[in-house]
Amino acid sequence: MSKELTKKRKTSRFNSSYAGIVWLLLLVLVFWGIFKILAPSNFGSGSKLLSYLQSSLIYAVGGCGLYFICVMGLWDFSIGANIVLSSVLACFFAEKFGYAGLILAPILCGTLVGLLNGIVYIKLRIPSMIVTVGLALIYESLSVFATQGQEQILGITYRAFGSYPANLILALCAFFLAGILIHYTKIGTYTYAIGSNEFVAKNMGVNVDKYKALAFVLCGFFAGVMSILTISYGTSMTSASSMSSMSRNFTPLMGTFFGLAFRKYGKPIIAIVIGEFIISLIFNGFVAIGAPTTIQNVVTGAALLLIVMITTKPVKGAVVK
């Protein structure tokens, strides 16, 4: 009897674990079907789907980094400025040191920016939103100083990560690392503990400040990896000013929302990746039917809110944690 019960429990966990993925894949089919009907010749072919995936991989990497922040109830609005600064440095150091410069410079820059975010947040004891918005202005200024306001273009010989298979390999490595950190290390365990109840986590002996700072470092690291993909795909980057980098925050953040909404199924990284692909489908779908940008933003925002609302709706009688 006990063996049968154990087997049923394992089967139940397995089914629950993959239920979220099934829901997300169904959403992919729904949005693909809608826009394919509305714009059959301009949307959804095999080559176009690969193109949509290519852009969604970039944002999904950033979404994985933001997940470590947002799952604890924190925010990082400097990720856009981080990407701009890391990308212009990637261009500069790629010319000096080849692919070593292209890879190491943005990762080191992104990680150092994340570390600075964490230190300032911990030391000042003010909301993370205020800290990162203020620091974003500084990072933007650094990007202007580094480039003297000139557009930086990545050399043709260093654009391998802008197309398949190199971009896919790099993105998969980032997803695998994020998954390992979340599911199999103290970082993931304590991150969830702090997000669930910071006071209880502190009483249990968790060094809350340490793991909050570490979350910012990880966010910066993944922003650095995202910068490699961004500059390789776009091939050029212009310095930012007057908070113009803020627009780069929201697409990876939307993917993070999918990860947060579907974390109850135990597959947040997969949810982020598929969620970013859904967002890419929606963006490109509106472009295919020629919808105005304002309409695209309204419907995309409404669709995201609806998806998150449905997937996070509590079950009656369940204990909300």
The CATH class: Mainly Alpha
Number of separate domains: 1
What is the distance, rounded to the nearest whole angstrom, between the alpha carbons of the first and last residues?
32 Å
Share of β-strand residues: under 5%
| Alpha-carbon Rg, integer | 20 Å
Q: What are the secondary-structure elements, in order, as H or E?
A: HHHHHEHHHHEHHH
Write the layout of secondary structure elements.
Elements: H1 2-38, H2 46-70, H3 79-97, H4 99-124, H5 128-147, E1 152-153, H6 166-184, H7 186-196, H8 198-203, H9 208-234, E2 236-237, H10 250-261, H11 268-289, H12 293-311
Antiparallel strand pairs: 1-2
Structure description:
- The protein has 321 residues and is mainly α.
- It has a single domain (42-308), classed as Orthogonal Bundle (ABC transporter involved in vitamin B12 uptake, BtuC).
- The chain has helices at residues 2-38, 46-70, 79-97, 99-124, 128-147, 166-184, 186-196, 198-203, 208-234, 250-261, 268-289, 293-311; strands spanning 152-153, 236-237.
- Strands 1-2 form a two-stranded antiparallel sheet.
- Helix 2 (46-70) crosses helix 10 (250-261) and helix 3 (79-97) crosses helix 9 (208-234).
- It starts with a helix and ends in a 10-residue tail after the last helix.
- The model is unreliable at 314-321 (pLDDT under 50).
